[in-house]
Design goal:
Chain B: Pfam families: Sedlin_N (PF04628). Chain B: It is found in: Cytoplasm, Perinuclear region. Chain B: This is Trafficking protein particle complex subunit 2-like protein. Chain B: Its main location: cytoplasm. The complex is a heterodimer of chains A (763) and B (121). The relative contact order of chain A is 0.07. Chain A is rod-shaped. Chain A has 36 helices and four strands. Chain A is mostly helical. The termini of chain A are far apart. Chain B is α+β, with helices and mostly antiparallel strands and 121 residues long. Chain B has a single domain, classed as Beta-Lactamase (2-Layer Sandwich). A three-stranded antiparallel beta sheet of chain B has the order 1-2-3. In chain B, strand 2 and strand 3 form a beta hairpin. The longest helix of chain B has 25 residues. Chain B is globular, with a radius of gyration of 15 Å. Classes of the chains: A mainly alpha (763), B alpha+beta (121). Chains A and B meet through helix 15, helix 16 and helix 19 of A and helix 2 and helix 3 of B.
């Protein structure tokens, strides 16, 4: 378009008109609604108005820039003068009277708009566009609506508007324009309005976005001048346009824009607050769209359906992908209503030329439906998404399954977790009994049924949070590691912490972990400890001048088959408890045993605590409980032993947890051996004797410092050695038994032969 | 040229490491759900760099090439890197607009990878 030269009067008049139409106060673009109103007020036929808009380039541009507006006004003047509308005549015709407009109501609006324009001039740049977007959207919505049905399905890249000069897809142009603007400096983006966008959703969805997108922010004067001088038009002229094209049909539309004026103004004001805010109308529209895909507003739209829907917007896949990343807050591959609205809003904004944000704006963030997740989960942002609606937790599981495994590796690294993860399901049963017994013993009974609370807890973040809180517990319980009561709690804690870590990635694993965690893991290591401790005890006995019985005790480990070992381990425990009851002296010495035999150390601790100043009340309770148990019959003793062993196990598990070594495999076999030990205990008749011996030996041992950290490693090493010894001895036993059977058979055969020979001798 | 040669070199390294990955995963008979098997560890070291491998449940392979001079990188760190990679990759996969097999153009994914690489240095 050639440059337009205006006389001063014309310039002044035109600028005033422009301002009046510039409801959005962009100073660059006049609102289509107002412009059209103005044109109609010029009392020209619709055809003429249409022609004018085409000539001025607004059709091409899709909006009325200042230059277009001026040209249009000039053309109106020409038309009103009866002159043919020619572009050439714009500058050639001199002394053209100013265009006349019947301004009745429009004047008031103009003044109103001017006032607003003035006040809004100071406003921030950016908020404007969204406000305008909203306003335009609504008005355009009405405007475009009539267009849609009449539009032929045209190539995707062209707007449905009948204009023949449709240019290539709006988006690329929008981008180009943006780039230009960015290079231009202060100019905020001038989104081209591809009002066409909405009509592209050919599923008869009304296009809420109009072609008017003239949301350019306030541009500095130089830019305005460039507008006037059409320097900017060439680039923008490539943008497809669209609003005037709505005119043909818009007899009804006419009223809409004017009706929308005040609304637009109001929206502009509200738009200052948040550029990305979704208005109620928009939200309602989005909700309606959501319903077309998913009737249940609380449900989810699967990713495939959302993909189809948003693909209709003709945005490039890359941008849609980015929009998805922004809007799918919980990363579940599906969209909730909030997420859908956010995505839709982003698509609309993008279509209007706004660049996509790097992060989801706060106003678009979907409401996080709090699951039972505890607030205490200090997870980073991406993981927070997992704390979203419960509905999405499940979907999370599938995509996060790999992360589950990953979490497990993390857990493995933490070491205590692996022990918890793997053995958990297996260990439950045997340890339960022990744990329950232990719990019963404890007076505190703060711990409910070990399994029930865990089982009952959903694998939610709440559990994890609790676990997380307890993560630190093992550290604090080092000194108390051997206490059974504490071990139970501490077992829960490390496990929960492990679970918590997992939780960050998935919701399923913690459940399984938690349920099983507390009871199983601890027992295992304890079991090993018990065995090793028993052997260690023997060694210790040898080292310590306990008494005449020591040698006998020492002799046990090497020559004793598997059975006696368990007996030994169980017996000393039982006896310790027994002695603990009536012999404070023993208890006083029991602490000495701690460094040598962790299990015994545990008990001695308990006993010591009970007698001395107990560091932990729980330990005292357990100690007293143990003592009480020991006071009962042998059957009870056995039970006590089991409990003690379980406690030991707990202690050892705690120790192992602290040491953070993966004990998954060892605990299992240890456990079974413990079971067998328990089973064997009743059968062993030597228990009382051995227990007496061992108890006395233990009692005489030197006190053991409470801090057993160093001992743990030694204990665990000895545990492993003992386990190996156990297996060897077990095999030896089986072999010997087999040999025994063979020998018996041979004996029988020999006897038969002898009898056969005897008759001869008789004879 | 240096950049190009560097890229080519890494491409070559990664391609050759794929053979090692295949070899490692083909021998695994038990369930692949075990996390430990996902992490393949050090595939092979050269004088310039070390190559670590990781395979997901869906047979997607991640290969990390680190400079041998970076001795401070421990195995745990590599594991955590793979874990983050896997998580980010899962998020990318969740995007319905992403076609598996396409080059990943997700900004979030790129940012996570870049952050990770910076941390490793």
């Amino acid at each position: 378009m050639e440059s337009l030269t205006l006389s001063d009067v014309e310039q002044k008049y035109y600028s005033e008109l422009f301002l009046s139409c510039d409801v959005d106060n962009t100073k660059k673009v006049a609102s289509n609604g107002k412009v059209l109103d103005l044109f109609r007020a010029a009392q020209l036929s619709n055809e003429v108005v249409h022609q004018i808009t085409e000539l001025c380039g607004a059709t091409r541009l899709g909006h009325f820039g200042r230059s277009q507006f001026y040209i249009a006004l000039k053309l109106i003047a020409l038309a009103q003068s009866g002159l043919p509308l020619r572009v050439e005549s714009l500058n050639s015709v001199r002394d053209l009277p100013l265009p006349r407009f019947v301004m009745g109501k429009n004047e008031q609006e103009m003044r109103h708009a001017v006032m607003f324009a003035d006040t809004e001039n100071q406003g921030p740049y950016f908020p404007r566009p969204p406000g305008r977007v909203q306003a335009k959207k609504v008005s355009a919505h009405e405007m475009i609506q009539p267009c849609v049905p009449t539009v032929d399905p045209q190539p995707d890249t062209t707007s449905p508007v009948v204009s023949p000069h449709q240019s290539p897809p709006t988006s690329p142009h929008a981008w180009r324009k943006h780039k230009r603007q960015a290079s231009g400096g202060n100019v905020d983006r001038q989104p081209s309005v591809p009002g066409v966008v909405w009509p592209h959703f050919r599923e008869a969805q009304p296009g809420p976005v109009t072609g008017d997108g003239m949301w350019s922010a306030h541009s500095p004067p130089p830019v305005q001048e460039s507008w006037v001088s059409f320097t900017d038009t060439p680039p923008s002229s490539t943008l497809p346009m669209h609003p005037p094209s709505a005119q043909p049909e818009s007899t009804t539309v006419r009223t809409v824009p004017s009706a929308m004026t005040t609304n637009e103004i109001q929206r502009q004001i509200s738009g200052y607050d948040d550029p990305w805010k979704i208005t109620d109308e928009q939200r309602q529209y989005y909700i309606n769209q959501f319903k077309t895909i998913q009737a249940d507003l609380t449900g989810l739209i699967p990713g495939s359906a959302a993909k189809e829907f948003f693909t209709k917007s003709k945005l490039p896949i890359l941008e849609l992908s980015h929009i998805w990343e922004l809007s799918d807050f919980d990363k579940d591959g599906a969209l909730t209503l909030d997420e859908f609205c956010a995505a839709f809003h982003l698509v609309v904004a993008r279509k209007n030329g706004y660049d996509l944000p790097e992060k989801l704006p706060e106003s678009l963030m979907p409401k996080l439906i709090d699951l039972d997740d505890s607030a205490g989960v200090p997870e980073p942002a991406p993981e927070v998404g997992f704390s979203a609606s419960p509905v999405e937790v499940t979907p999370n599981k599938s995509p996060s399954m790999p992360s589950l495994n990953q979490n497990w590796s993390e857990l493995n690294q933490s070491n205590e977790d692996t022990a918890i993860v793997h053995p958990v399901p297996i260990r439950m049963t045997p340890s339960k009994i022990h744990m329950q017994e232990m719990e019963l013993k404890r007076t505190g009974s703060d711990h409910t049924h070990p399994t029930s609370p865990l089982m009952a807890k959903p694998p939610e973040l709440s559990d994890e949070a609790k676990l997380a809180a307890t993560i630190k517990f093992p550290g604090t319980t080092v000194g108390d590691g051997y206490s059974s009561s504490d071990s139970f709690t501490s077992d829960q804690e490390p496990i929960s912490s492990a679970v918590n870590r997992q939780r960050s990635h998935s919701g399923t694993s913690p459940e399984g972990l938690k349920v099983v965690a507390p009871p199983p893991p601890p027992p295992r290591p304890h079991a090993s400890h018990s065995r090793s401790s028993s052997l260690d005890m023997n060694r210790n006995f040898a080292a310590v001048p306990a008494g005449p019985q020591q040698p006998g005790v020492v002799a046990f480990p090497p020559a004793v088959p598997p059975r006696p070992l368990p007996t030994q381990t169980s017996v000393p425990h039982g006896h310790r408890s027994v002695e603990g009851d009536g012999l404070p002296a023993h208890t006083s010495t029991s602490p000495h045993q701690m460094p040598e035999q962790p299990n015994f150390a545990d008990f001695s601790q308990f006993q010591a605590f009970a007698v001395d100043q107990p560091a932990d009340d729980g330990e005292n309770a357990s100690d007293s409980g143990q003592a009480e148990r020991c006071a009962e019959t042998t059957g009870t003793m056995k039970t006590a032993k089991n409990d003690v062993q379980s406690e030991e196990r707990n202690a050892t598990t705690v120790n192992s947890a602290k040491v953070s070594t993966p004990l998954a495999p060892p605990p299992k076999p240890v456990r079974r051996r413990l079971k067998s030990e328990d089973e064997l205990r009743p059968d062993v008749e030597d228990l009382p004797q051995k227990s007496n011996v061992i108890a006395t030996v233990l009692a005489t041992q030197p006190s053991i410092p409470r801090s057993i950290g160093k001992d743990k490693k030694a204990i665990q090493a000895s545990i492993r050695r003992n386990k190996e010894t156990n297996t060897v001895l077990a095999r030896l036993n089986s072999e010997l038994q087999q040999q025994l059977k063979d020998l018996l058979e041979e004996r029988i055969s020999l006897e038969v032969q002898l009898e056969q020979l005897r008759p001869f001798s008789h004879l | 040229d240096n950049v190009c040669s560097g890229e080519l070199k890494f491409h070559y390294t990664v391609h050759t490491s794929l053979d090692v990955v295949e070899e490692k995963i083909s021998g695994v008979g038990k369930a692949l759900a075990d996390q430990r098997e996902l992490y393949l560890g050090l595939l092979y070291p050269t004088e310039d760099y070390k190559v670590y491998g990781y395979v997901t449940n869906s047979k997607v392979k991640f290969v990390i090439v680190v400079d041998s001079s970076n001795t401070s990188l421990r195995d745990n760190e590599i594991r955590s890197m793979f874990r983050k990679l896997h998580n980010s990759f899962t998020d990318v996969m969740c995007n319905p607009f992403y076609n598996p097999g396409d080059p990943i153009q997700s900004k979030a994914f790129d940012s996570i990878v870049s952050t990770m690489m910076v941390q490793a240095c």
